[in-house]
Amino acid sequence: MPIQFDHVYLAAASHFLPGEPVDNHAMDAYIAPLNRISGRIKQRILAENGIQTRHYAIDADGHTRFSHAQLAAQAVQACLAQSNTPLSEIGLLTMGSSGGDALMPGFANMLQGELGAPPMQTLSSQGVCAAGVTAIEFAAQQIELGAQQHALAVAAEMPSRMFKRSRFAPRGYQSDFDAHFLRWMLSDGAGALQLSRQPFVHQGNLRIKLKWIHQKSFAGDYPVCMQLGLTEDRSTSFLDFPSSSEAEAAGALALRQDIRLLPHLFDVCIHEYVKLVDQGWIHSTQVDHFLCHYSSAKFMPVVEELLAKAGLTIPAERWYSNLSSRGNTGAASIFIMLAEFLQQKTLRAGEKIFCFIPESGRISAAFMLFEVEDASSDTNTQPEYQAATNTLESPQLYTPNIQAPHNPSEAPEPLQPLLGRLASLWQDYRSSVWRTPVIHQLVSGRFDVAAYRNWTAQWVPQVREGSLWMREAAASLDGDFAALGALIDLHASDEQNDFQILYQDYQAAGGTQPLDALRRNPGGEALNSYLHALAATPNPVGLLGAIYIIEGTGQRIVPALLPLLRQQVALPPQAFRFLEYHGTNDEHHLARWLAAVEITLALAPEAADAIYATARRTAQLYLMQFDHIQEPV
């Protein structure tokens, strides 16, 4: 749930970028390619990320011109000059960054010392891109509570020191793409926001109010994506080596990005945005200015496509980005973006500024909403924001359509409320699945052949029942609903022999039990009993909700599991045929599912409640099945 603010205003926003802009050719003087392989990596990455210039706080010889703390201090001083506020009136200093000049003490304390600031409250937020939002959120909470009148939230990044040739070349990472990737993506910079309880006037007659902030980490769901301090396989900390030089030689001090996980970042973040829409906090039609932090221009169409699939497109003319000229400055990016946006754009009362900050570190999503108010009146002329309190059942609330793979523009309007509710349910279900013991074991790199064999042994009898309860459901349809029978029978026919593929995978993993001897675990038994019981009732159209969860698991979760299994389970490719098949084909199954839902709601709009309720119960039982996977049956 977002944190809502009623008394927090943006007094000033500033940034500091060291030195002159460095273009793509000139950057070779700072972080030169090491050989032809790294040169090709550079060309590929720069061709995709859209960055034309950036700034470095080191010189061409690798010498530091501005320390990390000095970058932040420059941004703070510009911010205070803008608001004409003495440093002595600032009661709180919060700092967000991936790290400062020293491992300790906290960066906020180092910045306070750099500023020569008087005694004050401080907070250091260490992370990646969303660390700056954490700093803003804490500062805003203190102001909202009345504990502070003025606070500074600051973010700064200085990765150039890690990427300079003198440090990078001796490591021998010439062909290590994950280590090379961020060299050509990240650059230096700092930004600062002053938040105050009293409104500050902007552009003559306006004030900017912080409405709410929402952050959520999905670190319990996914492996590490971006990291510094672990070996390439993420298994050993730099502190576990006998010496720092040995840690350096082993690559534990190289900043790496696992780009294979990046698609999950945007999928998770857009689903979280769908939940915010579903709960009434925001809608794309209300967004006048969209400040989206993405690390590469390559990801802009990814965000656009996911928004479109959700039926939540934000027109391109409302987007604002300075990535091409400022580069990716990590946690400082949204600060620098907001500061430049306010300098360049003419605002109008009533406009909403929506900020979206995905973080790849271990998958996090952050959102902020600012609103422009008319400062000529002591009271806000715009209606006071109220979050919906019973949104899932609110009939007047527009809910989005996020169900892949159908084209949202072709989706009939009556389907959109149900699809929005299901998408919100899916976000919670997906996260819960990734935190079950068996998936957590896989994500943590502790899976083995025995675990996979045990999993498939319990899964085979569950899959075997799939076509049976679907055919039973088709036989229970009558009257107008009989038209659904052909679609469901077709689906059942597609899947009736799938269990044979999975059983062969079980055998390839060393399984020796006969097919009929395999048993479902307690969760599988409960799910199977529920589906058969429901299929035997008259016109069991609610089972479309069960198909949404089951097929969705195959289309959205399975593709993420398969690479992890292949890395950890020493088995030939034929041991994963079932997972590979479903990751490819369930997308088409979901398209057929959508057609069935369209037919059903055209006949009986009230069936949406039964479909949603069945999806919710199926998700609960499917989770129970995952929870028991590690237990022998």
Structure description:
The chain is an alpha/beta fold and 633 residues long. The chain folds into two domains: 3-223 and 258-374, Peroxisomal Thiolase, Chain A, domain 1 (3-Layer(aba) Sandwich), CATH 3.40.47; 408-627, Heme oxygenase-like (Heme Oxygenase, Chain A, Up-down Bundle). 45% of the residues lie in helices and 13% in strands. The chain has helices spanning 28-31, 36-49, 68-83, 107-115, 131-144, 160-163, 165-168, 177-181, 244-249, 262-278, 300-309, 323-326, 333-344, 416-434, 437-443, 449-475, 484-495, 498-508, 522-535, 543-568, 577-603, 607-627, and strands at residues 3-4, 9-16, 22-23, 53-54, 92-97, 121-126, 150-157, 189-196, 206-217, 226-227, 256-257, 289-292, 319-320, 352-359, 364-374. β12 (289-292), α11 and β13 (319-320) form a beta-alpha-beta unit. α10 (262-278) crosses α11 (300-309), α17 packs antiparallel against α21 (577-603) and α20 runs antiparallel to α21 (577-603). It is globular, with a radius of gyration of 27 Å. It starts with a strand and ends in a 6-residue tail after the last helix. The relative contact order is 0.10. Residues 379-410 have low confidence and may be disordered.
